Protein: D-inositol 3-phosphate glycosyltransferase
Organism: Curtobacterium subtropicum
Amino acid sequence: MSEDATTATAEPTGATGGSRPLRVMIAADTFPPDVNGAATFAEQLAVGLAERGHEVHVVAPASSAHHGTFDEEHRGVVLTVHRLKSYKWPWHAWLRFVWPWSVRKWTAPILDAVQPDVLHIQSHIVIGRGIAHEAHERGIRIVATNHFMPENLLEYVPFGRRTLPIALKIAWNDAAKTYRLADAITTPTVLAADYLRHAIAGQRVLAISCGLDASRYTARSGRPTGNDIVFVGRVAPEKNLDVLVRALPLLPAELHATLTIVGGGEMIPKLKTLVQELGLTDRVRFAGFVSDEAKRRALTNGTVFAMPSTAELQSISSLEAMASGLPVVAADSMALPHLIDGNGYLFTPGDVQDLAAKLAQVLQASETDYQAMRERSLAMIEAHDINRTLATFESLYRGEPVA
């Protein structure tokens, strides 16, 4: 990564409307090397737009003490990333944040230097809120995408369960002020759009999938010889992985089922203790944070994908599993039901017995039924093609109508 400070003032491209390449600025409170769905989407969007010929700039918190403007390589593409001075959030293992009152001061010169055709904020919380006000004052078109779920913050904020609803109401009222500045508001699913529309008092919200490049994933030609249950994602409290671990010993013994957990997070020590208490050390593998290639290999070799989380606005990892031809067993919560339609089963959130029963249904399915679930996953993923997502956002950036 090499530093390349932005000092010159860019000329506007005049590309809003028509088909000329755009100068796009993406502002996010989390961006790789952070590992989470919002960061993954922001990176995928930035890389995809750059590959389609647009000039892309990213504004995000610094991932260390070093801040400034850098040329960073992401997925083989070099992006201009403006890293703002950040600080570690004390209640979280890795999250870094920018002081809210400093955002406008630091982003105003970046906007003046880059002069983007459009600003696409990925949240209203810190950077998005500040830079949206600066862009609005400059007449820059604003698109806002929401990845925020209150449940994702329950474990990381110093609020009690009784006071949290009040804090969240205040936060959503504040969010509405930011979203009112946007020319278009999006979120990954119809359910998430309904949720956001209610939270910000009825503003129009478009449902646009985060998208996935299915060509990067490989489905096996036949059924695996073993019965490996796979989870991919952050090993965080809201993922409810203890429910998945407790379900494993309830499966029929003759299945010899195993569990592979791919991802890092603060819950790993507690889960390892639980695994030992249940006598499952030879049946549960913690792969940790792995390369994209190793993650895709784990999905290809898995038998079924499990997602016990109750705080998913889309679940990119579930989409990755579907692109790998896996049946999916997911909690009947938030947006996950939209991903289950003949390709697996929903279970009652938090219900260990029900999760075990649904996993057993997949693992004990006949060859014909199992193959039908795999084929259904592969068929459903076509609606989430990344090129469709990129084309839709290009239209929004240009001010064109989208369905």
